[in-house]
Design a protein that fits this description.
Rossmann fold, 334 residues, 3-stranded mixed beta sheet, alpha/beta
Length: 334
């Protein structure tokens, strides 16, 4: 295979994928982007690349896309915390990932970076930070999204061990920043908080990271990561109330000061899910959200910092960039 082969990227029209594409262009990679025929391509503006039509549920299109490629970044995924049909998410996130890995290996690619998620890692316990070595338990994976990412990552690592798949896995935390056009669940939380639509909070926490740092971490994993290893790409661990306070400070609002107990939010979540099934409009909160919120999702990126040279910026910069982008693109009033 020629050393100047293509670098194939799935998910480039999305939030994380478009950030990775820009990092790879800056590094001189000749990009080939797998896009669906009906995809929103606004995030591809200014990116020089060859576009190939395909879909993760169409294995033949993946084989065509991988032909002649030196590297593959598999980032495309169905990222939602509520879905009316969980099986559809499994087909994309698990079966689609397996099909992409097999197509890449059959094409003889030199190296693959698979974008997993901290959702696939073991759950933090007793105040410790979770990392790549935290033991997993099936009970940790609440909801279709977390289960699908766990199953997909396990399948990728099985292919590495059993069939020599040349893959490195990265596990991003909750990314925030520009070009979140849908927006993602985390981006929607930032947008709603900036617009004053979050009057209260629950006692939980998560790891927030700038999407451009996640993208840089992907490139570093290609260049320095060990095959078969996982790398957490996180930023700062913050309580939800502190995240909302930071957003409020950035936009000049008063932060929410009401903490809601689970006994109050559980029936509200049930009602939101009920109406979501009637209307098809995703609920603001689900029972799975509440179950996940019982454990603060705090993670360590020390391995990525040590082995890859990963260096995430302060989370305030991520929130400022996200808010600025939402304003510029008419999603948030000044």
């Amino acid at each position: 295979m020629a050393a100047e082969g293509w670098t194939l990227l799935t998910g480039a029209t999305g939030f994380v994928g478009s950030a990775v594409a820009r990092v790879l262009v800056a590094r001189g990679h000749p990009l080939r982007l797998l896009v669906r025929a009906n995809s929103d391509r606004r995030n591809l503006a200014g990116i020089e690349a060859e576009l190939v039509l395909g879909d993760l549920t169409d294995a033949a299109s993946l084989r065509r896309a991988a032909t002649g490629c030196r590297y593959v970044f598999h980032i495309a995924a169905d990222y939602r915390f509520w879905v009316p049909d969980p099986d559809a998410m499994l087909r994309v996130n698990v079966e689609g990932t397996l099909a992409m890995m097999r197509a890449a290996q059959a094409a003889g690619v030199e190296r693959i970076v698979y974008c997993s998620s901290v959702a696939a890692l073991g759950r933090p316990h007793n105040g410790f930070l979770a990392d790549e070595d935290t033991p997993t338990d099936e009970a940790d994976f609440i909801g279709a999204y977390k289960r699908s990412k766990f199953m997909a990552e396990r399948a990728v690592l099985d292919l590495v061990r059993q069939h020599g798949l040349p893959a490195v896995v990265v596990n991003p935390a909750a990314p925030v920043g520009p070009r979140d056009i849908k927006p993602t669940p985390t981006g929607k939380m930032i947008l709603d908080a900036a617009a004053g639509r979050v009057p209260a909070y629950i006692d939980t926490g998560l790891n927030i990271v700038h999407v451009d740092d996640v993208a840089e971490g992907h490139a570093l994993a290609l260049e320095r990561g060990r095959l078969g290893d996982r790398y957490v790409l996180g930023g700062e661990n913050l309580l939800l109330k502190d995240i909302l306070a930071l957003v409020a400070d950035v936009v000049g609002r008063r932060p929410p000061r009401i903490e809601l107990p689970e006994a109050v939010v559980w029936p509200a979540a049930w009602l939101m899910e009920f109406f979501a099934r009637l209307t098809g409009i995703p609920p603001m909160m689900t029972r799975d959200h509440i179950k996940m919120a019982r454990h603060k999702m705090f993670y360590s990126s020390d391995k990525a910092k040590r082995e890859l040279g990963y260096a995430p910026r302060p989370v305030r910069a991520a929130i400022e960039d996200a808010v600025g982008w939402f304003r510029t693109n008419g999603m948030l009033r000044a």
